[in-house]
Amino acid sequence: GNNNTSLSEGDVEVVVHPLVILSVLDHHTRRQEAEGRVIGTLLGRRDGDRIEITNCFAVPHAERGDEVAIGKDYNKQMFGLHWRVNRKEVVVGWYASSTRNMPLMADTSSLIHDFYAAEAEDGDPIHLVVDTRLEDDQRVLSIRAFKSTSVLVQGEPLANLFHEVRWTLHATESEAICLDQMTSNPTPPPQDTSSNGNSASLADATLALQKSMEKLLSHLENASAQVNDVVEGKRAPDPLIGRRIADTLACVPRIRPQVFDRLFHDSLQDLLMVTYLSNITRTQLTIAEKLNASLGV
């Protein structure tokens, strides 16, 4: 994404999580062929001038000329469901994709922004635009964030003036792991539902786990070598690296080896039981489909 070209008015800090970008792209990919851009609601947290966008959901809408219709009831129901799961997330704005036959900022964007100004907690929503046109030479996905200011004429609001604001991409630990897996395996092999396919997928999962453990062991060895060099005076101490190592070690729970082994084996038994039940269910569904096909049901 392109997050280094935005010019901000004020000190607004917008932080976007990768899940939001992937959800917008998925929504845009699944749209109907005759449909133009897609829009949706941005959820997150607001702390002063810092806005963190952590989640989003699609909202149906229709645009005809200068008119726009938004699924207000659908938006309200979806936000209610999200709020029941995570009450820390509030409406912080809205997103839109773009298509080749329309500009990046459509005329109806002002009307949609007014709707989300009433939905947002502080009445000042963020507008995130994911430019899916890929019109530049490098075909880079451009992502831009905007805030709006009302244009007043004799004290009456006439239009909205959008100002581009800076934004940064921030991934949590779990999101970073998923992104690393996605980039290392951009084209996964097709799924095979046969027994051989299950064995192959299990082997792939085992290999991925092995690579992950090898990578973790390499990081631990590098950190250990760094600490040993500092202790022996071979390397100058770095306070930043020291604090990061201390924070990492503080995140590791202190559990006796015997307790850890028991917890690990208990979790492994539960995982094997779930896998066994899933295989039985898959087999029963396959048998039922074949029986229905043979009986002409």
Secondary-structure content class: alpha/beta
Helix share bin: 40-55%
- Please, what is the average pLDDT? 83
| Count of DSSP H/I helices | 7
Low-confidence stretches: 1-9
Strand arrangement in the largest pleated sheet: 9-8-7-6-2-3-1-10
CA-based gyration radius = 25 Å
Outline type: extended
Beta-strand residue fraction: 15-25%
Strand tally, please? 10
H/E element order: EHEEEEHEHEEEEHHHH
**How many angstroms separate the termini?**
50 Å
* Major sheet: 8 strands, mixed
Secondary structure elements and their pairing?
Elements: E1 13-16, H1 18-29, E2 39-47, E3 50-59, E4 61-64, E5 67-70, H2 72-85, E6 90-97, H3 109-119, E7 126-131, E8 142-153, E9 156-165, E10 167-169, H4 173-184, H5 195-231, H6 239-251, H7 257-295
Parallel strand pairs: 1-3, 1-10, 6-7
Antiparallel strand pairs: 2-3, 2-6, 4-5, 7-8, 8-9
Compact overview of the structure:
The chain is α/β, with parallel strands linked by helices and 297 residues long. 46% of the residues lie in helices and 24% in strands.
3D structure, described in words:
The chain has 297 residues and is of the alpha/beta class. 46% of the residues lie in helices and 24% in strands. The protein has helices at residues 18-29, 72-85, 109-119, 173-184, 195-231, 239-251, 257-295; strands at 13-16, 39-47, 50-59, 61-64, 67-70, 90-97, 126-131, 142-153, 156-165, 167-169. The strands form two sheets. The protein has an eight-stranded mixed sheet with strand order 9-8-7-6-2-3-1-10. It has a two-stranded antiparallel ribbon with strand order 4-5. The longest helix has 39 residues, at 257-295. The two termini are 50 Å apart.
